[in-house]
Design brief:
It is a single chain. This protein has about 100 residues and is mainly alpha-helical. It has a domain of about 55 residues. α1 runs antiparallel to α3 and α2 runs antiparallel to α3.
Amino acid sequence: MILIIIASILLVIIIMAQNPKGGGLSGTFGGASSATFGVQRTNDFMEKATWTLGTTIVVLILLSIILTGKPSQPAPTMPTPVKTEAPVKTPTNNAPATQAPATK
């Protein structure tokens, strides 16, 4: 994962250093006097570095997927809760118990 992050940061830096109109880093360091050799070599290096880092990122991602693999057992699922009904309460009579009149 760390290698993927480092390669991504380097790729962003190289892409930001390029100028879409052909100037970029080669125009900055090459100057007008070395337009025949310096600019072309810098552009080639930047293009090769971009493709190399892009390919490296893709390969590292695929490699990380292969190495992590799929789990051998499916992830445990939560058991379905069993519905339990509340116990039925019998009404209680809070009145004091009275004795029935005795019959003779």
